[in-house]
Amino acid sequence: MSKEAPNQKNVIFDEIVVDRRSHRRFWQEFPAKDDIKSIIDAGLHAPYAAASVGSTNDYFRRFFVLKMGSKCMTTAASLIFEEVSTMASKLEISMENDTQLREKAIGFANRLAMIKKLGKVPGVGTAPYFIVVAEKKGFPAVEQQSLAHCLENMWLKATALNLGFQLVSATAQMADNPEFCVMLGINPGEWALNGCAVGYPADELSPSILPSVDEVTRWLE
Ligand SMILES: Cc1cc2nc3c(=O)[nH]c(=O)nc-3n(C[C@H](O)[C@H](O)[C@H](O)COP(=O)(O)O)c2cc1C
Question: Which parts of the sequence belong to the Nitroreductase domain (predicted)?
């Protein structure tokens, strides 16, 4: 870690936080391998649920890097697409007989339908790198929270490197998929998964429009 004066650190931190956006279009050029390694290193530095995974002998966080155009990326893209399509069909059937579910799930169902129509899961094969992150399951089951911390660190590091980053949350659905897990070299069902796409962003995005801190904060006495 660099030894900058604290105020400079603070200014840079704020800049990175404000610059962080979801990028969904990437150039095909591959970022340097060292940049990808430093993004993974930032993920490794993220907090983990020590009490939940404490007794495991094996290190509980793993990263798998898939490159655009590779055999593994083609396999991953088709397996994830299949899983999302199945999820979309199952949700459609469940919503037919359940109006409450329909009301709650319609936005998500529409998103799945859009992916089905597109024929691919955005972020898997649409950016130079697709990185899958695995967190060993523990008790209580807080793996997805740990993965979210890990991915946020990776996202901020990618932003600091001027790289685009996209969460690929459909990756989580692959944790029990035997073919996908065998490809990664892990046992199906033992790990929670999530993922992200990384590459040079094709669009320049302006900072998000957000409410002010005062609008969303209540100070309790
Ligand atoms: C739990 C979670 C899952 C998300 N999954 C995806 C995803 O699969 N694909 C995607 O493009 N964005 C995904 N996003 C990104 C959000 O859509 C995005 O953060 C939000 O629209 C705000 O935009 P910003 O990231 O540019 O600030 C996800 C965000 C969260 C918190």
Answer: 18-200
